[in-house]
Amino acid sequence: MGAIRKIKTKRRTRDLDQIHADLRSPKHLAEHTDAKPAEDLPGLGQWYCVECAKWFDSENSMEQHTRGKPHKRR
């Protein structure tokens, strides 16, 4: 039973109410982005999709994401 919970929490993303709070309030977004040091984030924390709450390695992968279906569904 312990392994199942570990897998579920490994892929956990931010909830919709948290994302909506990020969109409404820049202060809320700053608290989330400052929670982790930039060295631990993909691409040193330069590329972040606010709507999907995802970090990206490069500008190219961010552009591909914004053109993709999962981003447009958000």
Q: How does this model look, in words?
A:
The structure is a single chain. 54% of the residues lie in helices and 8% in strands. It contains 5 helices and 2 strands; from the N terminus they run αααββαα. A two-stranded antiparallel ribbon has the order 1-2. The longest helix is centred in the first third of the chain and has 9 residues.
Strand content: 5-15%
Low-confidence stretches: none
Please outline the major beta sheet.
2 strands, antiparallel
The helix tally amounts to 5
| Strand count | 2
Mean pLDDT: 79
Shape: globular
Strands across the major sheet, in which order? 1-2
How far is it from the N-terminal to the C-terminal residue, by CA?
32 Å
The class by helix and strand makeup works out as: mainly alpha
Question: How much helical structure, as a percent, in the residues?
Answer: 40-55%
**From N to C, what is the helix and strand string?**
HHHEEHH
- Using only C-alpha atoms, the radius of gyration works out to 14 Å
Outline of the structure:
The protein is mainly alpha-helical and 74 residues long.
List keywords for this structure.
5 helices, mainly alpha, 2 strands, single chain
Map the helices and strands.
Elements: H1 2-10, H2 16-24, H3 26-33, E1 47-49, E2 54-56, H4 59-67, H5 69-73
Antiparallel strand pairs: 1-2
Helix pairs in contact: 2-3
